[in-house]
Amino acid sequence: MSVYKRGKGTHWHYYFRVRGVRYRGSIPEARTKQKAEQAESKIKQEIFEKRFELEQKGTDLLSDFLDDVYLPWSKVNKKSWRDDVYMVPMLKAHFEGKALRDISVQLVERFKTNRMNTPTKKGTARQPATVNRELNLLSSAFSLAVTKLNSILAAKLIFSRSIIFATDICYPKKNRDSWPNSAGHAPTLDQP
Q: Is 0.70 topped by the overall pTM?
């Protein structure tokens, strides 16, 4: 077991790696080494269970999913399927080799900033609406992953990404006061 005390400290700490990912932390509740080892084994068990669940769901590559599932669905169900066919190669190039479960919020943020900072074919600045359309395509691909693949991970990603999309591109921070309230009405001066 990899539990230890730092210097003359009173807290037990744990440190271990699982597939190259480092896990470390303190166990302030443990008073003896035996209790610290029990707590560490529980932490390891939780990590292994979570890891096993993640490996079973969302292991398909995004590029394969877009080609095999999303584009055929788009051609049947959307009027704008030609736009999807045009934008999918760009998404595949950016997220090359990434599985559905590997696409994190940070990767989407990096994609968004890269797309905003790259000029268009004509050399002009890219419009935020263009990047928003590309992000919507990515969001609808994850929505389809939820329905077709029944992926719990994709459901969590959709929720977190939809909030980021709405807050960063559609509504700049200075305009967030004009968001509709829970009743669907824009706030007025007399509402808190």
A: no
pLDDT at 94: 92
Compute the CA torsion angle 5, 6, 9, 12 (nearest 10 deg).
Answer: -30
CA–CA separation, 111 and 8 (whole Å): 46
Q: What is the DSSP string of 16-71?
A: EEETTEEEEEEETT--SHHHHHHHHHHHHHHHHHHHHHHHHSS-SBHHHHIIIIIH
Report which secondary-structure segment, H or E, holds 134. Answer: helix 128-149
Contact 45, 73 (CB under 8 A): no
Cα Rg, the chain, nearest whole Å:
23
Give me the pLDDT at residue 47, please: 80
CA distance 141 to 4: 46
Across the chain, mean pLDDT equals: 77
H or E segment at 14? strand 12-18
C-alpha 10/C-alpha 12 separation (Å) is 7
Beta strands at 3-5 and 21-27: parallel, antiparallel or unpaired: unpaired
Residues 6+ apart with CB under 8 A from 99: 58, 59, 60, 61, 62
